[in-house]
Structures are given as C-alpha cells and as structure tokens.
Amino acid sequence: MKTKIVQFTLVLMLFLTSCKKEKTSQENDEMSSTNTEMDGTKYTVDSKNSIVNWTGFKPMGKHNGTIKISEGFVNIKNDSIVAGRFFIDMNTITVTDLKSGDGKEDLENHLKGLGDKEKKDHFFNVSKYPTSDFKITKVDFKEGKTVIFGNLTIKGVIKAVNFPAQVSINENQVTINSETLRLNRTYWNVNYASKSLFSDLKDKFINDEIEVQVNVTAKR
Q1: How far apart are CA 80 and CA 61, in angstroms?
Q2: What is the pLDDT, as a whole number, of residue 37?
Q3: What span, in angstroms and rounded, lies between the C-alpha atoms of 146 and 167?
Q4: Which DSSP string corresponds to 185-217?
Q5: Around 64, how many Cα atoms within 13 Å sit in the side-chain half-sphere?
Q6: Which H, E and C letters describe 36-48, residue by residue?
Q7: Between residues 69 and 3, which one has the greater pLDDT?
Q8: Nearest Cα to Cα of residue 111 among 169, 199, 193, 3
Q9: What span, in angstroms and rounded, lies between the C-alpha atoms of 142 and 101?
Q10: pLDDT for 118 beyond 90
Q11: 201 φ/ψ angles, rounded to the nearest 5 degrees
C-alpha cells in the first residue's frame, strides 16, 4: 500500500511540475511582448497628419491616391525607435489623379470592393478586411540611413518588409517619412489583372508592383 501511495505522489509531483513550467514559459512570452510595446516613451500617431501615398501602374498609364493612417504609436528610447505600430483605414482609399464624375468614384469603389459582388475581392475587399497594419520589428542604420523593418498585414496576410526613411525625433513629436517602396501586391492576395497569375490578359493587365510612400507624425 505504501508503495502505491509513493508512486501516486511522484506522478502527481511530476504532473504539477510540468504544468508549472508550461505556465511560466507562457507568462514570460507575454511579458516579453508587453515590455517591447511599453519600453521607452510613447508617442501617439496624429491621424490628421499621417498618410500612405500609393501609385498603381498599367500599360497605358497609372493611378495615384492616398489611404489614411487611423491610429497607432511609436516608442522612443535613447533617441531611437524601439517599437511602433500603425493602423491603416482601407475604407479611406482615395484616387487623386481623377476628378469626381470622371471615373474617380468607380475606381475607388472597385479598389474597395464595393458595389458589384463579383468584384468584391478583386482588390482590397474592405468589408471583410477594413484595416491593414504595419508593426515595427527592428530599426537599423545603414550607409547613413535609417532602415525600418516590420510586418505588413493586408487582407489578413502578413509579410516582412523594410524601407529606408527620414526620421526626426524631439521631445514633442516624431516624424517618419519613408522612401518610395515597391510592393508586389500578389503577395497579399491582391490578384486582379495580374499578368503573372493570368496568362490571357494581353495588354489589359495591371502591374504586380505598386509604389507606396508613408508619412507618419506621432505626438506625446
């Protein structure tokens, strides 16, 4: 009988020890993530002065536009960016090279996926994916330039990107002005009229690569 009690006690101790280790590991991961976001001085994104500029290309020309950055933050420590995240309101996609009544609204609705159900997922499908975001993972300095690394999420797809940027930091404000970044839209399942995916388009394709330039202002 004593032998059975001892065996049961040992099994119980091993089980409790195992559970404790698993919980501790999980808590450390959560704490590490929290500390990364809380480290340094937090600056809140000024949505009125933060925007994404975009350009899309096709054989016969191009279109330009903007998308608003709705919220976010940048954390600064020792005059350097240590964390940050920006949320992009996809419902604010705007075409700036067309006038109202001259195809502007039609193109905006097509990009957003509004109106015709068959066209809902041609581009960004904002009813299903209303927000995109960029989370900074690292900031490096190369050849006199600040290079920002991070994860860009569009349509629920996360891809790592990096870009050089002009960064200005003072007690009250942080500004980040990126150089023009070329993104392959198909990496985020934005596939409409992609020549690399559809072979029968002839000259009615849209370039896979789009140009993006980001301006962020954040204040204390």
Answers
A1: 40
A2: 59
A3: 7
A4: GGGGT--TTBTTT-TT-TT--B-SEEEEEEEEE
A5: 5
A6: HHHCCEEEEECHH
A7: 69
A8: 193
A9: 46
A10: no
A11: -85, -20
**CA dist., res. 96 & res. 66, Å (int):** 7
Residue 204 CA, distance from chain mean position: 29
Comparing CA positions, the residue from 175, 143, 180, 188 lying closest to residue 163 is 180
Average pLDDT over residues 13-32: 35
How many CB atoms within 10 Å of residue 20? 10
Supply 77's token pair. Answer: 């420590």
Rounded to 5°, angle at Cα 212 from 210 and 218? 160
Do 85 and 73 touch, CB atoms closer than 8 A? yes
DSSP lists the bridge partners of residue 214 as: 52
Residue 152 corresponds to which tokens in the numbers above?
């860009």
**Is pLDDT of 63 > 70?**
yes
- Closest of 167, 132, 163, 169 to residue 149, by C-alpha: 163
Query: Please, are residues 102 and 160 in contact by the beta-carbon 8 Å criterion?
Result: no
Model confidence pLDDT, tens digit, residues 9-18: 434 343 333 3
Q: What is the pLDDT of residues 31-42, one digit of tens each?
A: 233 345 568 999
CA distance 190 to 84: 25
Instruction: In whole angstroms, give the CA distance from residue 130 to residue 46.
Output: 20
Strand extents, DSSP E, the chain: 41-45, 51-58, 61-77, 80-95, 131-142, 145-154, 157-169, 173-178, 181-184, 209-219
